[in-house]
Amino acid sequence: MNNDTGMIDRAATMAAKATPPRLVRRVRGLSDKAIAWLFIAPTMLLLLVINIFPLIWTIQLSFTNYRANRPNAEVVNVGLRNYERLLTDPDVWIAMQTTAQFVFWSILLQTVIGFTLAYLIDRKFRGHAFWTTVILIPMMLSPAVVGNFWRFLYQPQIGLFNYIVSFFTGIEPSSFEMLGSVSLAPWSIVIVDTWMWTPYVMLICLAGLRSIPDYIYEAAEVDRASPWRQFWSITVPMALPFIMLAVLFRGIENFKMFDMVNLLTGGGPGSITEVASITLKRQAFEAWRTGPSSAFAIILFVAVFGLANIYVKALNRVKQR
Amino acid sequence: MSGLSSAHSVVEPGIWSKRIAGTLVVIYALITMIPLLWIFATSLKSPPDSISYPPKILFTPTVEGYCNLFTTRSRQTQDYIESLGPPANVCEEIARDRSMVVVGASKYWPRFVNSLVIAFGSTFLAVFLGTLAAYGFSRFKVPLADDLLFFILSTRMMPPIAVAIPIYLMYRELGLSDTALGMILLYTAVNVSLAVWLLKGFIDEIPREYEEAALIDGYTRLQAFVKVVLPQATTGIAATAIFCLIFAWNEYAFAVLLTSGTAQTAPPFIPTIIGEGGMDWPAVGAGTTIFLVPILVFTILLRKHLLRGITFGAVRK
C-alpha cells in the first residue's frame, strides 16, 4: 500500500513539474471513446454471431416443421402449433417434473451437507486448508467423465457402490441395480450430483461464514446468548445471501444438466431420468424433429433466463454487503 | 482480518470443538476421494481383476489398462504369435499373453491432442477478448454498460443443447462441423462471458491512479493499458485463463453433438472405449486418470481464486 501511494505521489509531482495538466488532457492517439468501443466490439461481435444469431434462428425454426436430416424437404410454417403441442404434451411435463425433482433433491442435499461442512471447516482446525482443497476436487472434474466412471461404480455385482452398501447393510449386492431400477435411478443421479457439487455450495457458504465480523459474536457473548441462539440469529441469517447465491447457481446449472445424466443413465431406464436437456437432445438429434425441438429449446431458454434475472438481482444484493 | 482473533477471543473455537470438526471433515474428505482412488486403482488392474466379484482391493498392478488405452490389438493364433520375434515393448508382451498382437495406435492420443488444441486455443482467444472488453467496461463510461454486461452473462445461461441445434445447422452450412476451429470459436464464445466478468472484477481492483499517472507522464491510453494495467492484472488474467481452460477441457455437450471424428475431444471419446465383450474398464480408468491429472494440478494452482471464479466474481472473499 505504501508503495502505491509513493508511486502516485512521485508521478504527480513529476507531472506537476513537467507539463500543465490541461495540455495533457488533450487526446493523444485514439480517443477514450474509440478505445472503449474497439475493446468491447470484438467480444460483442463474437457473442452476436455464436449466440444471438443462432438464438434468432432457433426462434424462426420453432415456427416451422423443419427437419435437419432432410434439408431439401419443403418447410412449412406452422405458426404457434409447435408451442401449443409442447405445452399440452404430457411427456414434456413429465420431463419438467423429472428435472424439478432432480434439481430440488440434489440442491437440498448439497445445501445441507455443504453448509455443515463449511461450518465445520470454519472451526479452523489444524490442516483445514489442505482438507478443504481435497474436498474441492470433485467439482473441478468433467461431468461427463464423472458420469462415466460412476456408471462403473454403480454396476451390480462388480461395482464398488453396491458392494459398500451391502457391506454396511447386509443387503445382497446383486439384489439392486442403481441405474437399472425405476425407483433407484433418479437417486443415482442425485447422489452423483451431490458428490460432485457439494464442495461448490460449501465454498460459497464458507465465504459467507467468514464474512461475519467477530465483534457480532463478541457482543452476543456479552449478552450471554446461547451458542444455539447465536447460530440461528447470527450465523444463519448473515450467511443466508451466500447460501441463496449458491442455490441459484446450482439451480440454473442443474436445470440445464445434460452431460453427467447422459452418460450415467442416458435418461433411462425408459424415460425415468429424462431431464429436460435429455428430452431435447432425443427430440433434436435422434428423432430429428428440429422445428418442435427448437420450440422446446426456446421454452427452456425463457425459463433459464427468468432464473438468471433473479440470480443477477440476488448477486447484486450479495455484492452490496 | 483473521489476524485479529487471538487464543483468548470468545469467538475462537475451543480445542474439542476443533478436534470434532476436524475429524468429521477428514472423514468426509476421505469418503469423497473413494471414487477417484477407485478409478485410479482400476486403471492399474488387469481386465479380469477389474470385473471380479467381490471387487478386488488388493491386486497385482499392471500397465495393461494404459497399454489397451493407447493401442489397438487383434486376436491371433498361437502359431502366428510364436512365429514372431521377441516382443518389442511391455505392451506387446502383455498383448501376447492374451493371444493378441498390437496392430496400431488407438484414437485416444489424437483425441487428447484435440482436447489440448481446442482448450488452449479457445482459452487464449477468450482471455484476449475478455481482457480488452473488461478493461473497456471497467474504465470507460459505456452506454448501457449494465445491460451489456447482463447480456454477456446471460449467454452463459443458455442450455447448451438449445444452442447446439442452430450451431449444428450453421456449422454445417459454413463447413465448420467437426473442425477444431469451429470448436475453438464456440468455446471462446462460452468462455468470454466468464472472462469478461472475472477480469472486470480484477481490473476494477487496480487503482485508476496508476494509469492516470502514466497518462500524465505522456503515455497514450493504449500504452498505459499495455504497460501499466496488464502487468498489474497478471494474477487475475492467469486465474481467469485457468478457469477457461478447465471449462473447455471438461466440456462434453457441444463436443458430443458437433464433433464425431477429426475434431473429437477426449470427454466424448473416453466413454466409448470398449474391449472384447464390454467396457474395457482398466483402459477407461487409464484414460480418465490421464485426463484428470491436469485438472488436479490446476485446482491446486487455483485454490485461492476458486471462489471468485465459480461465482463469476460475485464473491471475492
Which whole number gives the mean pLDDT of chain B?
88
Number of strands of chain B: 4
Main beta-sheet annotation of chain A: none
Topology, number of strands of chain A: 0
Give me the Rg of chain B, rounded: 26 Å
Structure explained in plain terms:
The complex is a heterodimer of chains A (321) and B (317). Chain A is an all-alpha fold and 321 residues long. Chain A folds into 2 domains: 2-61, no CATH class; 83-320, Orthogonal Bundle (MetI-like fold), CATH 1.10.3720. In chain A, 74% of the residues lie in helices and 0% in strands. In chain A, α13 (276-286) runs antiparallel to α14. The longest helix of chain A is centred in the N-terminal third of the chain and has 32 residues, at 90-121. Mean pLDDT of chain A is 85; it is low at 1-8 and 15-27. With 317 residues, chain B is mainly alpha-helical. Chain B has 3 domains: 2-43, no CATH class; 61-106, no CATH class; 109-310, MetI-like (MetI-like fold, Orthogonal Bundle). Chain B has helices at 15-43, 47-50, 64-70, 78-83, 90-97, 108-139, 145-157, 160-174, 180-204, 208-216, 221-232, 234-250, 253-258, 266-269, 281-302, 306-310; strands spanning 71-75, 100-105, 274-275, 278-279. In chain B, α3 packs across α15 (281-302) and α7 (145-157) packs across α9 (180-204). The N and C termini of chain B lie close together (11 Å). Residues 1-8 of chain B have low confidence and may be disordered. The chains are: A mainly alpha (321), B mainly alpha (317). At the A-B interface, α1, α3, α5, α6 and α7 of A face α1, α6, α7, α8 and α9 of B.
